[in-house]
Amino acid sequence: MGGWKFLVCLLLLIDLCSSFLVEQQPLVLTYHNGPLLTTRPAVDVHVIWYGRFSPAQRSIVADFVQSLEASKATEPSVYSWRKTTERYSGRSNKAMPMANTRLGKQKLDAAYSLGKSLKRIHITALVDRAIASRALPVNSNAVYLVLTSDDVTVEGFCMSCGFHANIFPRKNFLLPYAWVGNSETQCPGQCAWPFHQPIYGPQTPPLVAPNGDMGIDGMIINVATVLAGAVTNPFNTGYFQGDAGAPLEAASACPGMYANGSYPGYPGNLLVDKITGASYNGHGVNGRKFLLPAMWDPATRSCKTLV
């Protein structure tokens, strides 16, 4: 081998080795000086049910949202999970009073008024129409949560299990809203894991869902994720890392982490119900158990799990 070729190979080898030796940058969600939904007394979660949901399914989600303010629930609790957002600071750079997060008004759209194949603009339209018809109140310190049933396709579904954004229906203020779909028949290996085998990676057996509904229990994980993002980064000027168009936020910054000992493909050392064999990490109202994602803790600058 010629001398110059040997030198090129040596330089490439050094560069390759150095890439392994570079210390990985810590996960830090930077505050971008915008308002948070934790700065006011309460955050109402108004729910739009789009499509076919049974009363039992609606009660699981409603109980979860009500669990966010259930301070007397058995520990570890959904309430304790939510309180992590209390450590996020606002413009004064001091901890803000924690907002109560409570279940607001609900609207049923079981007739699929916009069809069964929706684009993101249709999600916005559902919120706009609900407000215009006064089915839901106008509240800039609320989250309007659109939930679609398992037979409804949504633009970008499977690339994203849920999202939050905001609309501008009135002058002078924005309204945060969010969407999550039931993935039981659409990419459950991505959006309902670990209650379904993953799309890729180790094919470990799926866990038993704590409320006996793989699709809805998977939705709870994603509802928790978008609500945490909406509270701490409602207008893309709060806490996030990376591009504002595709940010890592409070819960999305900690993907696949649910308990101590988690690693890619393994959710961690979860609690297991002795009777049903279901896996969970948080207690809620009415004896409910839920699985909640880890949340980035500003105090420790690390992902925090309930167990």
TrEMBL record:
What does UniProt give as GO cellular component?
Answer: apoplast
Q: Which InterPro entries match?
A: EXORDIUM-like
User: Which superkingdom is the protein from?
Assistant: Eukaryota
Record localization: Secreted, Extracellular space, Apoplast
Signal peptide position in this chain?
1-19
Entry keyword annotation includes Secreted: yes
Give the record's keywords alphabetically: Apoplast, Secreted, Signal
What family name appears in the similarity comment? Belongs to the EXORDIUM family.
Q: What PANTHER family does the database record attribute to this sequence?
A: PROTEIN EXORDIUM-LIKE 2, PROTEIN EXORDIUM-LIKE 5
Name of protein = Phi-1-like phosphate-induced protein
**Species of provenance:** Picea sitchensis (Sitka spruce)
